[in-house]
Amino acid sequence: MTRRDKARRIQAELDALFPEPAVPLGHVDPFTLLCAVMLSAQTTDLRVNQVTPALFARASTPAALAALPEREILACIRTCGLAPTKARNLRRMAELLVERHGGVVPRALEALEALPGVGHKTASVVVSQAFGEPAFPVDTHIHRLAARWGLSSGRNVVATERDLKKLFAPESWGKLHLQLIWFGRRYCPARGHDAAACPICSWAAPRRRRARAAGGRSG
User: Within 10 Å of residue 141's Cβ, how many Cβ atoms?
Assistant: First the structure.
């Protein structure tokens, strides 16, 4: 089976399992999605969804967040990892949205990546999920799945993103990003994974990887 044939079958499996995948981070517009994704670094989506209601109740627009003292932002997000840095970045990001973009989240990756605390993955999530632009956000978990399935030989997320974009049509990137997130959580965890029982690893993982997994279980 070629890599492209494998990609088509994987996409069909994901479409069957997750026909309408939801964005896992609670939000109501591009700005609240941007804030939530920024908060999600080194933190679970569950934790982010626990802290954002209080934050958005205080400040749900760039102007309101820019006017909120950093200590109050920190009080809302304190249980998130790297909270002090995130509080500082959130406030400065909101200030720059007001100063540079009239309080509107830009649709361009380059403009988003110029904001504090907004890397390529975060910007890709926002343009894809908020604006429907073709982008394929690849985090460490999607990178892991692509390697398990032999879809990418890349040693980093940049190479994996490049390889996945070659295998799948641009109009499917946003949906696939979400499907891969949900699949990883429900069927394909990083640890304690049973490749033989996995709906995709059981046939897509290279044989040597499946053999190592089976050996680990028997030992």
Answer: 16
Question: Which segments of the chain have a pLDDT < 50?
Answer: 210-211, 213-219
Q: Are residues 143 and 123 in the same domain?
A: no
Q: Which of 129, 152, 176 is the last residue of a domain?
A: 129
Q: Are residues 89 and 121 in the same domain?
A: yes
Q: Which of 190, 89, 105, 93 is nearest to 147 (CA)?
A: 190
**Catalytic one of 86, 121, 163, 175:** 121
Residue 139 catalytic?
A: yes
Cα 181–chain centre separation: 7
Catalytic residue among 86, 139, 163, 175: 139
Percentages helix, strand, coil for the chain (3-state, rounded to 5) are 65, 0, 35
Q: Which residue carries 């626990």 as its tokens?
A: 50
Question: Which domain covers residue 191, as residue numbers?
Answer: 3-20+137-218
Verify whether residue 175 is a known catalytic residue.
Answer: no
pLDDT in tens, 158-185: 999 999 999 999 999 999 999 999 999 9
